Every structure is written in structure tokens, then in C-alpha cells.
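Researcher: Next entry in the queue.
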Amino acid sequence: MLDRREFIQRGFAIGGLFALPRLSWAETGKKTPGARTLVMLHLNGGNDGLNTVIPYKDLNYRILRPGIGINDAQIRKIDGQYGLHPALGGFENLWKRDRLAIVNGIGYPQPNYSHFRATEIFYTAQPEQTPTSGWMGRAIEARESTKPLRAVALVKEKPLLLQGATNGIVTMTDFRQFKLPEGARETAEVYREAAKMGGVRGEVAARAIEALKVANRIAALRPVTGGFYGPVGRDLGKALALLRSKLDLEVIHLSMGGYDTHANQGGQHNGLLGQLGNNLRSFQDQLERAGLGDRVVTCVFSEFGRRATENLSGGTDHGSAYPAFVIGKGIKPGLHGKYPSLEDLDRGNFKYTTDFRGLFAGLLTDFLHMDARAAIGPHTPLELMA
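Model: Structure for this entry, 386 residues:
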């Protein structure tokens, strides 16, 4: 008769994909409420918010951006003051369909301009500390669940955002990583026999069997290709395949690189935003066609924005506040938060107007129904859900 240590060792032997759930979870029998998934898309490198959401009526915009400023005739105007970058036709479509919320002035006190440290701050929601767990990892840990798989990061290494949760977190780049190795059938049979025993051993074995079933389901998936292009499109195709598989994931994490535009920003930024907007429009369209529109919200964020003034290389340097985006069917669309002043700058950088922790707390509280205080602390949640 196998004890729990032996079960765990066998579980890790199956590709190292799943850790068995804590015994306390198996014993409580509590189920995770709802079946909603938050897709977190990190624009890695620091997106230039001023050329993404453009205050075209503000004369300071032309003063700050004489070379790389967007021509007024090309701006996709969304109201009498603000417009989107011309490459963001996908976002304009989402805006007109009430599927896009723009959260202005995202930041925090005393911003850090290092990619590594700023990313660490956004992933942990603790600017004053150097913690070892992420805010989403803490949120997952705080809510009991018997599900073998709760979050997937479509990156090579587990992001700090998801650190802290003891189980149910998988990092992957290819569904074939879930193909079970030789000997898995024998191990599964051991679990099935043990599950008949009841008690703690039976509960642990039952959870292991569920993990094997999930692994088989994921190994059989194929990324959705229609309507997507480029690296971020390929990842969104994988995310859509996972969502269609009804695994009831709570979080999917993605990253899109290339936003560190120190030089020759114009063409590079245009290409990046074109991919971003078009792919996310397709993602949202396909979610709704699959009947998943009410169950998925996408949050697009960066580790920081860019400086207000352009540099001598036709680009922008590391900055502070920027606009984040929330996309979904059940959101409160439109502009949220105050756009930072283009005149009242802090040594050339925007002063933040919306604490990023309020944005993340709002998504946890109102969409995922998770304990935001346990994950982020006493920050007022931003109300973004209808």
C-alpha cells in the first residue's frame, strides 16, 4: 500500500507536470466558485503610452513629440480629446462594440525604471519589498480548490506573478510537453486501485487520476491558427485552445516582447501595436463565438511606460505612468482614471493617477471573486465590471 510520499514521487515522475493538491483541500471538498479566466498579457519592455492613447487636443503633445508624434489625420479618435494609434484598428473595433476599457495613468509612488525591478513590482504588487511570491500566486493559494490545474503561463519559465501557489501552476510553450511518458499507464492503474481504498490515500489517488486526465486532454490540443499571426498571435491561439477545452483555468499568462523602443520607434511601435490590436480583436471575437465571452477577461499591461519627451534617436526612454487595457464582454467600457498631465511632469516623466494595485484588485474582486486583500493588501479595487 503506497503512502502519500510515494504517490507524490510517482506523480512527479509523470513528466513533472503536476503536483498533487494539499490534503486539506481534498478533505474540505470545497469547490472553486465560477468558471472564469483572467488572461494577463504583459507588454514586455515598456510600452509608450503617449503614442498608444493620444491626447490629440493637448498642444503639449506636439511640443513633446515633434518628430515621432502621430499625425492628427491618422489618429483613430475615440472622443473629443483622445485617440488611438493608427495601427490599433483592432482596438478601435473593440471600443465601438463596448468591449474595451482604457485605464489611464497606471503607476505607483516612486517608480522604478529598471526592467527587472519594475516587472518584479508589477508581478508582486509590493513596491516596498522584494517578495518571493506574486499577487496572483497568493490569490490562488488563498482560495481552496481541488482542481489539478488552475493557471498556465505560456512562457519558458514560471513568472514571479504566479509564484507562491503550491499547486496547479504549469509553465509551457508546447502542448506536446503534456504527453505522458512510458510507464504512465502502470502508474495510473496503481492510482485507480488506491482510489478504491477510500480515506486520505483514496482522495490523493483520485486527485492524481484527475491530473492524468488533464494531461491527456492538453496533450491532444492544437493551437488555434485562424485569425492570428505573429508571436503574440501564436500564444493567443494556444490560450484559445486551452479555454475551449473547458479546463476552467483561473489564469493564463502571456508575454509580448519588443516594446523597449529607445531608437527608431515609429516603425517598430506601429508593427507591435498592429499585431496587438488585430490579434486581440480576433481573440475576443472567437471567444464570443465559442460562447466564452462572459467567462474571459483580458488585461494588457506593461512594467512601465516611456518618457514624455522623445530622445535624439527617434525613440523614447524608460518612463513611468501609462494606459492599461481591459477587454471583455462584461466590463464597463470607456475611459477610466485621469489621463496624466503633459505639463506637470516629474523630471520629464508622467505622474501616475491610478495605482496599478487598484486595477489588479478590481479584477480579482469583481471578476474572479478572489480575496484581493490576501493577495494585494488594502487597496481600493477599481470598478471595471458591469
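Model: Confidence is low (pLDDT under 50) at residues 1-33.
Researcher: Noted, moving on.
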